[in-house]
Specification:
About 35% of the residues lie in helices and about 25% in strands.
């Protein structure tokens, strides 16, 4: 017996999931990961925010653009900004929308400059150049696309109120979007299924637990900044985030697969 219209979950009612894809993961996304995005869309609405660090670095090297650094952060000069936008909006964004389109997902590529999606301001113009911090998210634009069953795929280039483009950290852009649009979940996609302890997936971890796991060197290397980004994204509106794998399914039998990170203190390392 089919559900009545009043019982069906419509695009307006589906909870929203924001997925942050790091630049290093884009070449590694598996077919099963992309298939699970398609499956996820049966019960959720999805927004994807992507980075592009490795590709930007490669292009800067190829074009022989010298980088300046301040406290370990690259200064985004006008030339670096142009290359970052070219790589993020021109190359990676379109590659990702094409991959999703092959799976019959209605993906639409956007930059944070489109429709003033990510309004930003200078973070530290003197020392960091054209690097921005998020001031406002145009959630009306995103909701309009989600209602039409589109999956927005967003390149993190912001724009100031007077039209200056700025380079935005993709983790911070994804967190700001998730918070503004009242997302049910924010997922950080990595090359592992989550935090592993003796080869087994830790399904839930708290800030305190993560500190202990870093001390014990269970979490190490490139996983530390990923876990830190997840912790930084937690807020009163976003009570948990997840670390999931881009090499495998992230959604199976109605359940997310990965490590849920929360600020709650009652989860204990055994």
């Amino acid at each position: 017996m089919s559900m009545s219209k009043s019982m069906q979950v419509t695009g307006h009612d589906k909870p929203i999931v924001v997925i942050k894809l790091g630049g290093s993961m884009l070449e590694q996304l598996s077919e099963s990961f992309l298939d699970s995005i398609k499956e996820l869309l049966t019960t959720k609405r999805v927004i994807i925010v992507h980075g592009g660090g490795p590709d930007i670095n490669n292009m800067l090297t190829k074009l022989n653009v010298k980088s300046e650094f301040y406290n370990g952060m690259r200064k985004t000069t006008k030339e670096v900004l142009e290359i970052a936008e070219m790589v993020l909006s021109g190359k990676i964004n379109k590659q990702l929308t094409a991959l999703l389109t092959k799976k019959n997902v209605k993906a639409i590529g956007l930059s944070g400059t489109d429709g003033q999606l990510i309004v930003s301001s200078f973070l530290d113009e003197e020392n960091l150049g054209f690097v921005g911090k998020v001031e406002q998210i145009n959630d009306e634009l995103l909701r309009s696309l989600l209602i039409l069953d589109y999956v927005p795929v967003i390149a993190p280039i912001g724009i100031t109120a007077d039209g200056q483009k700025l380079n935005i950290n993709a983790d911070l852009a994804a967190s700001a979007i998730a918070e503004k649009i009242n997302a049910e979940q924010l997922l950080f996609v990595t090359n592992v299924p989550g935090i592993l302890y003796d080869g087994k997936l830790i399904e839930e971890a708290t800030e305190t637990m993560i500190e202990k796991l870093i001390e014990q060197k269970v979490i190490y290397g490139g996983m530390i900044p990923k876990v830190q980004a997840a912790l930084d994204a937690l807020s009163d509106q976003l009570e948990h985030v997840m670390i999931v794998s881009g090499n495998d399914r992230i959604f199976k039998e109605g359940k997310m697969i990965g490590t849920k990170i929360t600020k709650k203190r009652e989860v204990v390392v055994k």
